[in-house]
Amino acid sequence: MKIAIPVNDNNLNTDICPSFGRTAYFLIYDSETKESKFIENIAANMAGGAGIKAAQIIIDNGANVLLAIRLGQNAANVLKASDIKIYKANEGLAKDNIEAFRDGKLVSLDKFHAGFHGRGNR
Are 39 and 28 in contact (CB under 8 A)? Predict the structure, then answer.
């Protein structure tokens, strides 16, 4: 299973970024091989539509699950249409959230905001 997480830096000891569409990187963690891949978020500086573009990056990289602190409705719609499961991450380190997910301690994220629409919130 591939787990996607928006992160502030390109290592496992970084915090989860609270802004999905404007995050600097996405961590794609393969729970079977234990391999981590960091992808630069090319959507971060878009004037609008960053969440939708970021969701497409997640899809294109084969993720099955997204761990996020919060998520916009448009991005959620794109991810759900691709059968990607969305879980509410805890603030803190990416590696701690992977562990919490593995241990069944994260719940589904089912409340989404309207989005920031180009306001550049990070």
Answer: yes
Average pLDDT value for residue range 67-82: 96
How many structural domains are present in the chain? 1
Residue range(s) defining the domain that contains residue 14: 1-35+59-113
Length of the chain: 122
The pTM (predicted TM-score) of the whole model is: 0.91
**pLDDT, tens digit, 9 for 90 and up, residues 11-38:** 889 999 999 999 999 999 999 999 999 9
Q: How far apart are CA 101 and CA 4, in angstroms?
A: 12
CATH code of the domain covering residue 84: 3.30.420.130
Asked whether 91 and 101 are in contact (CB, 8 A), the reply is: no
Q: Residues near 37 by Cβ (< 8 Å), separated by ≥ 6?
A: 27, 28, 29, 30, 61
